[in-house]
Amino acid sequence: MRRLILLCCCILLTSCGGVAVDEYAAEQPALDLKEFFSRPVQAWGIFQDRSGKVIKRFHVDINSRQEGNRLILDERFVYSDGSTQQRIWTLRPDGKNRWRGTADDVVGDAIGELVGNALRWRYELNLPVDGKTYLVTFDDWMYLMDENTLINRSSMLKFGVELGQVTLFFRRQP
Prior knowledge:
Layout: H1 2-16, H2 33-36, E1 41-49, E2 54-67, E3 70-79, E4 84-93, E5 98-102, E6 106-115, E7 118-129, E8 132-146, E9 149-158, E10 161-172
């Protein structure tokens, strides 16, 4: 019983910490989502389990378009095992420094905070693995490095416990 209480306390303490997106207010260049995705983008990434082992590598082609104030991102994934996936995001501004996003496998809305060169997305995703689907939580941090390069680091969690991380590099195409 004491171990269970200690485990719960540790989980609660680690979930309360973290950096606020406002810490990046002065960082340049400032990220403008509509501008960054105004051209085709290619991305490369890996998924690592909680031990750090690379489980999957992938490449993504992203084409986008604007529909009114909405930004539509059509992502086409090719994984190292040969499997493919498509995800279409619909992003929309939601007040100062805020964005909302939807996609077919996202439960509810993804909530984004954009300040300076950083964007933090938080959302729940239905993740298919070996014929089963798991509801996981993503905590995505994206950082604009220069006008053509965006780096994304994501933590994937279940019940507040990290299952793994995704690292992704985006590059705008000419």
